[in-house]
Fold this protein.
Amino acid sequence: MDVMESAAKALDFMAEDRRAMRWRKILRKLLENKGAVFGLIMVFGVIFCAVLAPVISPHDPIFQDVEKRLIPPMGQKGADPDYPLGTDHLGRDIVSRLIYGARISIVVSISAVALSAFLGTLIGLLSGFYGGKVDNIFMRIADVQLAFPFILLAIAIIAVLGPDLQNIIITMAITGWVIYARVVRAEVLSLREKEFITSVKALGGSSGRIIFRHLFPNVIPPIIVIITLEMARMIIMEAALSFLGLGIQPPTPTWGGMLADGRVYLITSWWLATFPGLVIMLVVLGINLLGNWLRDMLDPRLTQL
């Protein structure tokens, strides 16, 4: 027994050592990719701002003081050190509104991506595994949805449901499930005839067991990559809806709403639209760079860990 216990402990130690070596390789590859490091910094920076907004925000983001309206950012004539990025047309602090705007972007993008990933993955698994009529029904629904422009579909849904946070998340999730469904379906179609799947069928494995215990784990890597890249798209979509007045309604600060407010003052007060636009660009760029690195890490054809 002592020999067997020693052998078991040795095997456990070897497994832990392999896991540690794998994580060290992942960390090394991450640090070697400057774009991925930048993306990681941007993602954690936005999450940090969203979580600690009440603590780190220098001012109330919705407090209006018309006597301090259109104060320019630091480095410009008439700047105020209390407002390093200036104020908007109602005297509200730009920095505080950017920090609180991160909350809306993070909540909406994470919720919409989670909902669309769940729905799209489930549809893709069922469509790819069963095929036939099930596949035709789901794929025709996907084709019909792809034929609708996003803005038109969003306007129709929000006009019926109303422009609140929950309805915006539902709208964005409805427009995002198709890519998950198509990718997962393609993966399942290539996997369902593999030997390990036919072996499970021969042993009497149920359809549910095959789908969720054997097929689903094999489609997780592409799902992770899609989730990362869809996060960036959802942030842009939320900003676009807010810009058009279909997103979260004032006075709640959103990056898209700040862009809409600033477009009237582009000539005289450029900072109103420049800073929220710059933040959106940097965050989306960072998420895309991180997503590209994840794609390379999870693709066995491109890397070996």
About this structure: The chain is about 75% helix and 0% strand.
